[in-house]
Amino acid sequence: MINFTEATETIRMITQENLDVRTITMGISLLDCIDSDLGAMKEKIYGKITGKARDLVRTGEEISREYGIPIVNKRISVTPAALLGGSACREPGDYVEIALTLERAAQEVGVNFIGGFSALVSKGMTKSDEMLIRAIPEALARTERVCSSVNVGSTRCGIDMDAVRLMGEIILETAHRTADRDSLGCAKLVVFCNAPDDNPFMAGAFHGVTEGDAVINVGVSGPGVVKTALEQVRGEGFEVLCETIKKTAFKVTRVGQLVAQEASRRLGVPFGIIDLSLAPTPAVGDSVADILTEIGVEHPGAPGTTAALALLNDQVKKGGVMASSYVGGLSGAFIPVSEDQGMIGAVEAGALTLEKLEAMTCVCSVGLDMIAIPGDTPASTISGIIADEMAIGMVNQKTTAARLIPVIGKKVGDTVEFGGLLGHAPVMPVNGFSCADLIARKGRIPAPIHSFKN
Amino acid sequence: MKKTIITVVGKDTVGIIAKVCTFLADNGINILDISQTIVGGYFNMMMVTDATAYPHPAAQLADEMEALGKEMGLSIRCMHEDIFNSMHRV
Fold first, then answer.
1. Nearest residue of A to residue B85 by CA position?
2. Is the Cα torsion angle A300, A303, A309, A311 positive or negative in sign?
3. Rounded-to-integer distance, Cα A184 and Cα A416, Å
């Protein structure tokens, strides 16, 4: 039977160290909603989402109350929309109509985000893919809940540089379309390499074509819990450090597994995966950066940060995989800048640069995340940053992503306030030298060699 | 059996156990185990209970216990046993 100490530890994790289940995300396939008539397809999409996810929010809240664990977000991911509109959509405006339908469905079932306004173009773009991508700025400007992602590269296929070039322009246009809200639209737009089919975290969640009709994926969190556990082993060797992270990750993941199974049972939807990610929030004590500081760097960005992050990421996985039958999604430590008080502090202290963040993304999930850059950054430079990040993912066989926010009207040193879970961010400097000639080249970067690994 | 762990934390005062137990008895909840300490004037109690006979949804019990705690200036949490089992037992 559970003893007093164990009960107290669990309750302390929840009440003082921000342990929570970050999201229950229901993945819904919309492939059976495809229709050559746009109006009919919109009706089918709305009907399917509101039917499948009708009880999602209520069930999440019931589980939260019964088990005493906060479940912060209830969300939906759907089939990448570019796969739906091939015959019904004649122009980007038609895709905007689909985005508005997703928004309406999300509003009806009460979820705060719906992901899947997406295109998978790692080798090339169909007309439909390109139309969807060109619809992104208007779609994100006219909706609040819709999240968009574009997968432009993979280890198997290489990088579609035409899509990378286009995405630089699209991100900038999205920033302009939402300039009155500090270019908030870009916070809901991710560019991926090796995007997973079962990621429950926004803004990059979509329901991959390899998935079943509907699925429940759960993302856990708990950087505060890891940080507090490490406070108890200050000065100890790496063995103790690693053991502590593993044990904590195990406990955190087990909570996610329990919630996922319970949600799956109550909703009658199969359980997919647990995403083991350490996801920070702007709240004090809920920071991945603070863990790095606790491991021993003065600020994230100091020499040694990449090593500390590599260790953290690996131990989280090692502890987490034993706690769950199915692990998937992104599963690693997130290092978004605006959503993590410690990362914001590191940028403001001058310790953390875009280049160091790029190095850090080589050893953790996911990528350059929630980074505010000056609004006058050229589209080709944005494409260049994306290309670098995609190359890291492609060569290292891992997921990487870029969620960059060129904040219109803001320059280096200004601060942007996104509010809520998205936090605030100092505008970071970007290397001013041009890569326009590289980005202007047409075609794609070939897939890397998969043998000769020495 | 549907086991629920109830924890009560707060400044010690007369009648905490009496009030909590009366509430549980009135709602058909059986107490299986109690451990309780007072540290520095602060009351800490953990109860393992069987809520199988409780007629309403478990979330309602959690809400009502929380409200009872507020009345007495205490923090009362009522959580399904499985969250502790899954976290602390392999």
1. A2
2. negative
3. 10
Distance from CA of B66 to the nearest CA of A (A): 11
Residues of A in contact with B88 (CB under 8 A): 2, 6, 9-10, 251
What domain range is A260 assigned to?
219-445
**A365: nearest Cα among A149, A196, A216, A250:** A196
Q: Which domains does chain B have, with CATH numbers?
A: 3-88 (3.30.70.260)
Kindly report, residue by residue over A364-395, the tens digit of the pLDDT: 878 899 999 999 999 999 999 999 999 999 99
Q: Can you tell me which residue has the tokens 């088990």? A: A67
**For A143-156, b where at least 16 C-beta lie within 10 A, e where not — what string?**
bebbbbbbbbbbbe
ipTM attached to this prediction: 0.88
| Mutation site, A13, A19, A66, interface B, largest B CB count within 10 A | A66
Helices (H), A31-115: 38-52, 56-67, 92-109
Rounded to whole angstroms, how far apart are CA atoms A131 and A91? 6
pLDDT digit string (tens) for A274-296? 998 888 988 888 899 999 999 99
Number of domains in chain A: 2
A354 and A236 both lie in a single domain: yes
Residue ranges in A268-298 assigned as alpha helix (H):
288-295
Whether the Cβ atoms of residue A211 and residue A27 lie closer than 8 Å to each other = yes
Nearest by CB to residue B84, choosing from A7, A62, A257, is A7
Six-digit token string for A429: 């400097």
The CATH number given to whatever domain includes residue A423 is 3.20.70.20
Residues 124-183 of A with CB under 8 A from B: none
Out of A4, A68, A251, closest to residue B46 by CB: A4
Other C-beta atoms closer than 10 Å to the C-beta of B15 total 9
Q: Are strands A146-154 and B3-11 parallel, antiparallel or unpaired?
A: unpaired
Between CA A244 and CA A234 the distance in angstroms is: 11
